[in-house]
Amino acid sequence: MSRMTKQENSWVFYDWANSAYSILITTAVFPLYFKAAATEAGLAATTSTAYWGYANSFATLLISICAPVLGSIADFKGFKKRFFTFFFALGVIFTLMLAVVPSNQWLILLICYMLTVIGFGGTNIFYDAFLVDVTTEERMNRISSNGFAMGYIGSTIPFILGIALIILAQQQILPISVSIASQLAFAITALWWGLFTIPMLKNVNQIYYKERVPHPITNGFKQLFETVKKIKLYRSLFLFLLAYFFYIDGVNTIITMSTAYGSDLGIDSTSLLIILFVTQVVAAPFAFLYGRLADKFQAKRMLLVGIFIYIAICMYAYFLKTVLDFWILAMLVASSQGGIQALSRSYFAKLVPKENANEFFGFYSIFYKFAAILGPFLVGFMAQMTGNTNSGVFSLIVLFLIGAVILIRVPKATDIPQSSSISR
Question: In the 3-class helix/strand/coil scheme, how is the chain assigned residue by residue?
Answer without folding.
Answer: CCCCCHHHHHHHHHHHHHHHHHHHHHHHCHHHHHHHHHHHCCCCHHHHHHHHHHHHHHHHHHHHHHHHHHHHHHCECCHHHHHHHHHHHHHHHHHHHHHHCCCCCHHHHHHHHHHHHHHHHHHHHHHHHCHHHHCCHHHHHHHHHHHHHHHHHHHHHHHHHHHHHHHHHHCCCCCCCHHHHHHHHHHHHHHHHHHCCHHHHHHCCCCCCECCCCCHHHHHHHHHHHHHHCHHHHHHHHHHHHHHHHHHHHHHHHHHHHHHHHHHCCCCHHHHHHHHHHHHHHHHHHHHHHHHHHHHHCHHHHHHHHHHHHHHHHHHHHCCCCHHHHHHHHHHHHHHHHHHHHHHHHHHHHHCCHHHHHHHHHHHHHHHHHCCCHHHHHHHHHHHHHCCHHHHHHCCHHHHHHHHHHHHCCCCHHHCCCHHHCCC
